[in-house]
Amino acid sequence: MSARAIHSAEDARRIAKRHLPWMVFDYIDGAAGRETGAARNRAALDAMTLRPRILKDVHHRTFSVDLFGASAERPFGISPMGMCNLSAPGADLMLARLAARYKIPHGVSTVASTPLEQIIDVAQGHAWFQIYFSGDGAGTFELIDRARDAGYQTLVLTADVPEVGRRPRELRHGFKMPFRMGPKQFIDFALHPRWSLNTLLNGKPEMANFQMEGYRFDRTESRARADWDTLKQMRDRWQGKLVVKGVLDVEDAVMLKQAGVDAIQVSSHGARQLESAPAPIKVLPAIRKAVGPDIPLFFDSGLRSGEDVLKALHAGADFTFFGRILQFAIAAGGEDGLNALWQVLSDELSIAMAQTGLTGLTDLESQT
Questions:
Q1: Which residues pair with 245 in a beta bridge?
Q2: Where does the FMN hydroxy acid dehydrogenase domain start and stop, copy by copy (predicted)?
Q3: Which helix (H) or strand (E) holds 169?
Q4: Number of domains comprising the chain
Q5: Within a domain: residue 247?
Q6: Is 168 known to sit in a ligand binding site?
Q7: Annotated binding residue 152
Q8: Considering the domain boundaries, does residue 65 fall inside one?
């Protein structure tokens, strides 16, 4: 029933808020500080307009785009998100099956709640591994080697978290990874029995990539030692595609291009790290102008609809990623909910393309 009630990303969020414990919902939904950064992202996207066109034959439309030499059936993929199985047991694999079906990348988080080897297998190879540089880097490079051995072809370095941002909503609930149960958490879970029983039957979500001996991860550990030499070491070690995510500065983007990365992802981490960061959609055109047309630019942060995707593509992105709204869809209606929202996003994009006179997504002119 809940899946049939999803007609927009906001529907998915509203239903998920009812189903999820407060601690889990606020972990997924929350942003840094007073959350003005998240509001800034949304306001910037809302302020952008598209150029309606009439009397163009747009009967046949295609969504496919080139992505590292392969054809993706949608111009949007799945952002790396930690502990997705908090939204529902098996969420990671629901996302992996979606990625396989549409041949789009499933960003697999360092702190995924399903082993990275299992996810890429279910995704039929359509998975990219996201990495943080943590501590002295020894564990980071071990994990990179493990991803390579599992068959990952693309590595995504998330570079915008030298220290983990403070998100008061999750802190108020005492959110920890792994979970620590206290009276507040017990009451929270008791008031959401469907989620709690489901989780109890399927096992408490864990940081699955660190269940093997020798692999440890502290979510709060400083990542501040990473520098340009770190990137060089990573570039030398990783023979596949290397994407750097979390870029909001033109100078940094130009330096990344010079350093030989394969793509740059313009992102504010969903406004979860630095509250005062600029809205990514506002800096995207300047970064595109600075790096030129030849290097792929990816985009995430604040996207909530197919129209948002089209705005980002017009502003200079080659590909986009959705994040927390996919978890909300899963929390709202399981795999049916995820598929329902994916269809909504596809329909929104298709309609926006028709109304702006587009039959395809290559060589878009700036219309914002």
A1: 158, 265
A2: 1-368
A3: helix 168-172
A4: 1
A5: yes
A6: no
A7: no
A8: no
Q: Tokens 């790396």 identify what position?
A: 80
Contact (CB, 8 A) for 268 and 248: yes
Q: Is 130 annotated as a binding residue?
A: yes
Query: Under DSSP, is residue 247 helix (H, G, I), strand (E, B) or coil?
Result: strand
Query: Which has the higher per-residue pLDDT, 191 or 219?
Result: 191
Q: pLDDT tens digits, residue range 64-77?
A: 999 999 999 999 99
Placement of tokens 């709202």 in the chain = 332
Catalytic residues: 269
Helix 324-355 crosses helix 9-19 at what angle (to 10 degrees)? Answer: 160
Binding residue per annotation — 74?
Answer: no
Domain with residue 180: its CATH number is 3.20.20.70
Q: What is the mean pLDDT of residues 189-202?
A: 86
79 marked among binding-site residues:
no
Q: Kind and range of the H or E element at 130? A: strand 127-131
pLDDT of amino acid 224 = 80
Strand-pair category, 76-78 with 319-322: parallel
pTM of the model: 0.94
For residue 304, the tally of other CB atoms under 10 A from its CB is: 21
Q: Is the pLDDT of residue 257 over 80?
A: yes
Can you list the pairs that 116-123 forms with residues at least 24 positions away whose Cβ atoms lie under 8 Å? 116/146, 116/147, 116/150, 116/152, 116/208, 116/209, 117/150, 118/93, 119/92, 119/93, 120/96, 120/150, 120/151, 120/152, 122/93, 122/96, 122/97, 123/96, 123/97, 123/99
Q: Which amino acid is at 107?
A: G
pLDDT of residue 167: 93
The pLDDT of 248-273, averaged and rounded, is 97
**Residue 184: predicted pLDDT:** 79
Identify the CA nearest to 252 among candidates 241, 266, 240. Answer: 266
* 300 annotated to a ligand binding site: yes
Instruction: Look up the domain containing 9 and give its range.
Output: 3-49+75-355
Question: Residue 107 phi/psi, 5° resolution?
Answer: -70, 115
Average pLDDT over the chain reads 92
Is 66 inside a domain boundary? no
Q: Does a structural domain hold residue 360?
A: no
